[in-house]
Description:
This protein is mainly beta. Strands 3, 6, 9, 12, 13, 14, 15, 16, 17, 18 and 19 form an eleven-stranded parallel sheet that branches. It is built from no helices and 21 strands.
Amino acid sequence: WANSRNWNPPFLxxxxxxxxxxxxxxxxxxxxxxxxxxxxxxxxENGSLRISGTDTVRGDILINGALSVDSASAPEIVVDxxxxxxxxxxxxxxxxxxxxxxTHTVNEMVxxxxxxxxxNTGQPSNLHATGNLSVTSSLQITGDLDMGDDTLFIxxxxxxxxxxxxxxxxxxxxxxxxxxxPNIRYRFEADSTYIEFTDSSxxxxxx
Length: 207
């Protein structure tokens, strides 16, 4: 990333530049340094990029190649608009945050932590999914999450894996359930809707 000769034109991406990762990046996968900000990020088919720290994309993220998070870090990826593409995202321990106060869109994807957050004036963001979403750690919602006809999979059996004041307004929620621990509240659509098993016998593994 830090070698300007790897870029076309031959200088490092600036705050005002849209970043495109070409297929030739596969020969030596670039690692995006932390604390960068760009208008948009596009990873072309057969291109690849690694993230090592917290970065901000002030527009869209389009992944038609592969975006991965350095396994030794747990950065935030802040997205101001939409997340799309047909490629792969390897989230590591990252938190992806939608923070613009808009209705963002996201395609089918797996996240570690997913935050549907407020903007700097306190306006909540909403998220519309166009495919199934999987969250391996936690989901925090301040606005609305619209899954449409698709399914949100929470792959964490802790009761508080879904939090926040927002709602899941459409779609299906599938949650892992601890089969050995009764009296845990598993939230679904909103903070007031939950399932709790009071007897440890016959607790299902998913609901």
